[in-house]
Specification:
D-Maltodextrin-Binding Protein, domain 2; 3-stranded parallel sheet; about 270 residues; alpha/beta; 2 domains
């Protein structure tokens, strides 16, 4: 009788703890699967971006719809994977923290590939190339090169490549949340200069022809723009799938067409 009771208790314990009796719990299965499998299982991929950086990610002034070069790149990648794209808008300094914590699958926001970022994240193949431009007020004759930034004040998104570059040249940088804000700070004289993507600045000038600003210098080499994701074996399949999607966009001409649509020229070829 005692033997029967013991067997019954063992059976109950097995039902209550499947992992100990040849079965895995759903949470364990989820933890063991790679990120691409999880994305396909839920049917959507979560993509983080600022939503305030025209023409990369911004809101249409008539419809308030989220649009931009990177928005359409993200939509293409999602369609290539056979899932829906879920966009989350957040200031620059929160993009990577959200991905680190697992809230976002990808950050698609004109991200430069840098040595420091490459140590922490895996990047896709580059899908665009940009130079950094230095902007000052139209009446500023003191700053004509990046070397002139030493001891000056600039404004850029906290933790951005542009802030880091300004500080490397000896500037003190004030943090902002959007391109529009940083340009207004330069124009009002609150700071002396700002750095940003050449294409974004030219787009701003076209949208604000009355602005009293000018470009005085460019970096000689173009930066690679790619899509960062968390490091690890569980992201290897996702990284390959994203690279395949980028390759498909190049091959069918979509990438070049999107670049021309939003930038007025092709920034997707570094040749």
């Amino acid at each position: 009788m005692k033997k029967i009771i013991a067997l019954a208790l063992a059976a109950l314990l097995c039902v209550g703890a499947l992992a100990g009796c040849g079965g895995g719990s759903s949470s364990e299965e989820s933890a063991g699967s790679d990120q691409l499998e999880q994305i396909k299982s839920k049917g959507s991929i979560t993509i983080a971006m600022e939503g305030t950086w025209s023409p990369w990610t911004y809101h249409d002034e008539n419809t308030d719809e989220l649009v931009g070069f990177d928005v359409e790149v993200g939509q293409y990648i999602a369609e290539y994977l056979g899932v829906e794209a879920e966009f989350v808008e957040i200031p620059w300094d929160g993009l990577f923290a959200g991905m680190d914590s697992g809230r976002y699958d990808l950050v698609i926001n004109g991200v430069d590939v840098t040595e420091d970022r490459s140590e922490k994240y895996d990047f896709s193949d580059p899908y665009a190339y940009i130079r950094t431009a230095l902007v000052v007020r139209s009446d500023n004759e003191d700053i004509t090169s990046f070397e002139d930034l030493k001891g000056r004040t600039t404004s850029n998104s906290i933790g951005s490549t542009y802030m880091e570059l300004a500080e490397q040249y000896g500037a003190t940088c004030e943090g902002v949340d959007s391109l529009g804000e940083t340009m207004q700070m330069v124009e009002s004289g609150r700071v002396e200069a700002t750095l940003n993507a050449e294409q974004s600045i030219l787009d701003y000038f076209s949208q604000h022809p009355e602005s009293e600003l000018k470009i005085v210098a460019y970096t000689p080499d173009a930066n690679e723009i790619a899509i960062p994701m968390r490091k690890g074996e569980d992201t290897a399949a996702l990284r390959q799938a994203v690279n395949d999607a980028i390759a498909a966009m190049r091959e069918d001409g979509t990438l070049s067409k999107l670049s021309t649509k939003y930038f007025g020229g092709d920034i997707t070829d570094n040749g």
